[in-house]
Amino acid sequence: MLKAENLSHSFGYSLFEGLNLEIAPREKVAIVGVSGSGKSTLLHILAGTIVPNSGTVSHFGTSYLSRTSSDRERFRREEIGIIFQSHYLFKGFTALENLQVASILSKKEIDHDLIKRFGLENMLNQKVTELSGGQQQRVSIARILTKKPRIVFADEPTGNLDRETANNVIETIFKYIDEVNGIAVIVTHDENLANRCDTIYKLKDGIFEKIK
Ligand SMILES: Nc1ncnc2c1ncn2[C@@H]1O[C@H](COP(=O)(O)OP(=O)(O)OP(=O)(O)O)[C@@H](O)[C@H]1O
Ligand SMILES: [Mg+2]
Questions:
Q1: CA 209 → CA 5, 116, 134, distances in Å?
Q2: Which residue lies with its CA nearest to atom 16 of ligand 1?
Q3: Residue 131, in any domain of the structure
Q4: What is the rounded distance in angstroms from the CA atom of residue 30 to the CA atom of residue 170?
Q5: Ligand 1 centroid to 97 CA: how many Å?
Q6: How many CB atoms lie within 10 A of CB 44?
Q7: Among candidate residues 139, 140, 130, 196, the one with its CA nearest the CA of residue 163
């Protein structure tokens, strides 16, 4: 479903070289490693938002760079969901309005089951600036899943959450992935979260190693 071949990237100095990765439908993959090892950069390369110095990334058997620019745009809009380290909600809007924007742009219905599972029913009409960091994070994840992407990338998705809420959020994301036959690639420092993934890779000093 996702295949990365021979990826190399550097920002002045090399982050990694000859990196290979293959992800099958329903697979949840964790990427761990110390700060600055290149995890976020790798995630963006896999998502197509950063072009690697060399190597290819294919989604559903098609190399990302071989797509036309309009197909890339469509593909990213429809199939890729990125949960960022810091969330980008529309600040003047309520939680519900933020979900409605995603629903309109993707022409997909708002998923009320998802709202319930993320525990957001009672805060839908509140401005997102009036929500706590963890509540905003859940709204932001719900918004990304509203467009029903099959490939989900997440950079520290549980960073702002307590253990119990984090577990709920992860369970909801994983259940979602199984429902759409998708994949999740999650960068995390949270050992508990990494261990719940099917596969764990560690990025260290340019070496990308499967540790689970
Ligand atoms: N756009 C950029 N231009 C130049 N250097 C960059 C750029 N983005 C990242 N880097 C550098 O590349 C290295 C890896 O950054 P990256 O954000 O991928 O690390 P990370 O593993 O995600 O770290 P963290 O766990 O702190 O989020 C860092 O040294 C960073 O300074
Ligand atoms: Mg990072």
A1: 14, 37, 31
A2: 38
A3: yes
A4: 12
A5: 33
A6: 17
A7: 196
Residues of the domain holding 127: 24-51+68-210
Question: How confident is the chain (212 residues) per 10-residue block, as mean pLDDT?
Answer: 98 96 98 95 97 98 97 95 83 95 94 94 96 90 96 91 89 95 96 96 96 96
Buried b (16+ CB within 10 A) or exposed e, 128-150: beebeebbbbbbbbbbbbbbbbb
Domain count along the chain: 1
| Predicted structure pTM score | 0.94
> What type of residue sits at position 96?
L
CA dihedral (74, 25, 178, 154) in degrees, to 10, reads: -60
Residue 144 sits in a domain of what CATH number? 3.40.50.300
Q: Which atom in ligand 1 lies closest to the alpha carbon of residue 42? A: 18
